Amino acid sequence: MHSERIVAGGSDIEKQLDDLLGQDNPTRFSPVDSTVESPSESPLTSLKSIVLSMDWEISDSILKEFIQELKRLKAVFQQDGIVVKSLQLLEAIGKYILQKKSRTHPESISLLKSIYRDLEILLLSKGISHTVRRNILIDEVAQFMKLKKKLAVPARPTAGYLAGESETATTSSDSPSSEPPFQGRIVSDGERTPSLEAVLYAIEDMKNCIQTEFGTLRADLKLSRESR
Amino acid sequence: MKNKEIQAKIVYYGPGRGGKTSNLEYIYQQFRERIPSEIVSIKTHGDRTLFFDYLPFEVGKIMGYSTRIQLYTVPGQVKYDATRRLVLKGVDGIVFVADSLMVQRKKNLISLKNLQINLAAHQKDIFRVPLVLQYNKRDLDELGIPVLSLETLENDLNRQLKVPSFPASALKGDNVVLTLKKIIALTMASFQKRL
Known about the structure:
The complex is a heterodimer.
Chain A: H1 11-21, H2 45-53, H3 60-76, H4 81-100, H5 106-124, H6 130-151, H7 196-227
Helix pairs in contact in A: 2-3, 3-4, 4-5, 4-6, 5-6
Chain B: E1 5-13, H1 20-30, E2 40-43, E3 49-62, E4 65-73, H2 81-87, E5 93-99, H3 105-121, E6 131-136, H4 150-158, E7 165-167, H5 176-194
Parallel strand pairs in B: 1-4, 1-5, 5-6, 6-7
Antiparallel strand pairs in B: 2-3, 3-4
């Protein structure tokens, strides 16, 4: 799709422009040449580039590229169990984000970046001991399990729905009608204002709750009348 | 394009306070004799571009065509999106002036995304339009002010676009003319391809 991009103006045109506008003054800054790869590239260059691009946009194509690159790295580092495990954690989070899209739990993105930073330490730090590497992995796994636990909170808990944590990565019965419309948003910690959707959902939930309570009361009254 | 004459519209786009107007001011200083009028600039009290800056510029003969370039800037502030969209109408080439300041990283990304959206409103594809990236304010690094590395800027802004990019200092004039020449060359090549 991008093959029609013109990135060079043609030497004849550029020469004419030099004649017309003069040669450039010496500058302190060398032009950036993105086509030349740095010789000191690390094996994580591509992955880092993808992770950095997530600051701008997290699209399906970027996530697929991310997962693909992780698979490549797993093959490269198959002898290093700790690195492979880290890559697996990243892959699991990447697949979860790809699946849930905008309903992704916000902490998953920050965890992804945090594990990536740890991966850089694991792969690029010189003289790092096995114990330190193992501790990094243990910490990563603990963080991952913590998030997984949050995601596993059953949908629509009675008091916790505003926490937006009813989203589960393993939910199989995702009928649209049973899902709150604002899943994945954290609003309970006071840092954010609940969205209109969240407020409307809360009102609807309260209405349902009141109706249920009234139904129960009516049934109790009926029973009590009948017993007299 | 008419009577062996080419008029090209080049727009300097980017986040607010990134240096778009400074680019035009430097060009105006350098090539004053080729510029038939004063730089047209409408600013707010805070010296921010309110509508746009406009600089008509006679380049000379390129490919046998008398070439006249119209340089525009857009207001970078987020609230002036309608103006930005308007200025992009009929654009032939774009210089995206990114701010190298570390604290402006996100604004660069938002502005580039905004450019893509506003180009799409004119049925233009950011991946096809002649485009040059300029990483401005590189001189601040020498003053100890935290700036983004060129690697980060390339990763953030040019990873997918893969267009020519230049570190620059619009205030001091470093690579301003080089950026201009590159976008004119790309725009002319684009015209040539369409002929």
